[in-house]
Amino acid sequence: MTMQHEPLRPPRTERRGFLKSSAIGAATLAGLSLSCGAYAADGSDTLAFVADGKQFPFDTGSLKGVLRPQGNSSGITSVVNAARGATVSRSLGLFTHYRLLEAAKRHGTSARERSSESRLLADGTVEATWAADENHPFELKAVYRWAAPDVLDVVTSVTARKDLTGFEVFLSSYFEGFGESWVYAKDAGLAAGKPPFVQATRDKGVWQMFPRDKQAAEMIGDGRWKQPPHPVDWAIRPTLAGPLGMRIDRKTGLVALVMAPPEDCFAISTPFGTEGHRSLYLSLFGQDFKLGQTKAACSRLVVRPGVSFEDAVRIYTEYLKECNEAVDQ
Predict the structure, then answer these.
(1) Is-contact 223 103, C-beta < 8 A?
(2) Rounded-to-integer distance, Cα 243 and Cα 186, Å
(3) What distances in angstroms separate CA 238 from CA 29, 177, 183, 210, one per listed residue?
């Protein structure tokens, strides 16, 4: 029987919206992290970061590296897959908070260039905080938690100190190798019954963005990406079937997935596969904030060998199910 793949519908948002509008302290963020996945209940120390000065090394048995090296405002860096001895990412890292954007506005150059504070929580997660200031009228927080040896969840929260319009947090991941880039997107040219993954190839443009819907495409073109430094002229590609990007390294057999619930992410972007950045990006939020309002967005990274397109859809579908079930509890 031929399997027909329908575009994924956004999960139920009523209770997620209630959670995201609540005041977010450390305990609340931990609860939101749980809404993004199921975590090991065996108390294993391998699924935990450890404090080493201002940085947080990890060795999950599958992935080894450092979160926020020397206290820098970056994600996980110097990442190595233990079983294959393969470098997954170097200095720019994975799940690093990058551009902070509004309509026709950019707040500073990059969150990764701003100073921030971090702390190790009792359960082995790490919370990072970027304080509000004159040029950044919002507080940004991120909580990093291992869901499995090869699965990292990050919850990003924003508290507005003034009204924000179409506010976006651009979450970046830079890989070593991984010369193929694919996005879970609709395309009329795909064969019936095949998972709808569209490859980012050179002939479609250097920088390519896959929007969630028409409104998202309009937001991408509202002037935010014209702001220096390094403005980007995105080639708009097919609409997402769900916020799921995929990088494949044919040499090592490793596959990297980045994903988010549809209501949390309005676009996925990437350069063509072999372009030097070897990157994938999640455009989080894309929402208006009122003064004092707090919202949170979930995202997940998976790095493992031999993931097929069908496997990727299954992993993503299970992720959305976990989010829904956690919210319904």
Answers:
(1) yes
(2) 12
(3) 33, 25, 9, 6
Residues present in the chain in total: 329
Helix (H, G, I), strand (E, B) or coil at 228: coil
Q: What is the value of pTM for the model shown?
A: 0.89
pLDDT tens column, 39-75: 444 445 789 999 999 999 999 999 999 999 999 999 9
| Chain centroid offset of residue 270 CA | 13
Which amino acid is it at 2? Answer: T
User: 314 CB contacts (<8 Å, ≥6 apart)?
Assistant: none
Cα 23 from chain centroid?
A: 22
SS3 56: strand
pLDDT at 328 over 80: no
DSSP 196-241: -EEE--GGG-SEEEEESSHHHHHHHTSSGGGSSSS---PEE-PPEE
Q: Which domains does the chain have, with CATH numbers?
A: 14-328 (2.70.98)
